[in-house]
Input
Amino acid sequence: MRIIKTKSYEEMSKKAANIIASVVTLKPDCMLGLATGSSPIGTYDELVKKYEAGDLDFSEVTTVNLDEYKGLPKENEQSYYYFMHEYLFDKVNINPEKTYLPDGTNLNSEEEAARYEALVQSLGTVDLQLLGLGRNGHIGFNEPGDHFEDGTHCVDLKESTIEANKRFFESADDVPKQAYSMGIGTIMRSKKILLVVSGEEKAQALKDSIYGPVTPEVPGSILRFHPDVTIIADEAAMSLIK
Ligand SMILES: N[C@@H]1[C@@H](O)[C@H](O)[C@@H](COP(=O)(O)O)O[C@@H]1O
Output
């Protein structure tokens, strides 16, 4: 596990984008696992800049996203489909037919989870999985619990996650109560993992993930068992780590 400490969110984002760009440059037809949330927005902005400067070509890249709210249609501004198009897909030359997310409009949880898991596996191995960290230590939408879920599944979101994510919605009541998420096994099967963490409100979750026991109570802690993890965290997120 490599831990890179940066002075700011901007520096974190630049370094993360450099790592993703190197993967795309070395393997133009790579498969990227992508994340949503405020943590990776700066990284996507930096990737767009590299594309606009003519330094990156996404035409052969395939992407699979970690998660999606259950029940939100694609055109809902809070759907992760919308987010990915807004921050990345519509701004670079990626082939939209090679970008995949769970289908939030399929309300049959078992069917959708099985479909997405089979799809991700059929596409091959994720070369690099980008992750953010929830304030409660979640990765994707794998919430703290008593066991690690292996494959894609439907999650009942924790109150703390609904509380954390309500800033994007009109009220907490508007935040979906469930989401589809890749499982811990899906994430751990990626060749490389890149975790970006910013802000003081993540400091405890980051410390617990890196130094606490490996436990499903802190889903991010499982990353210690992965052979190729890079964590890029700003000073605020690292503030509880000496
Ligand atoms: N499902 C997403 C995660 O994929 C994300 O990494 C995390 C942190 O979000 P943020 O980066 O906005 O703090 O929580 C969200 O709920």
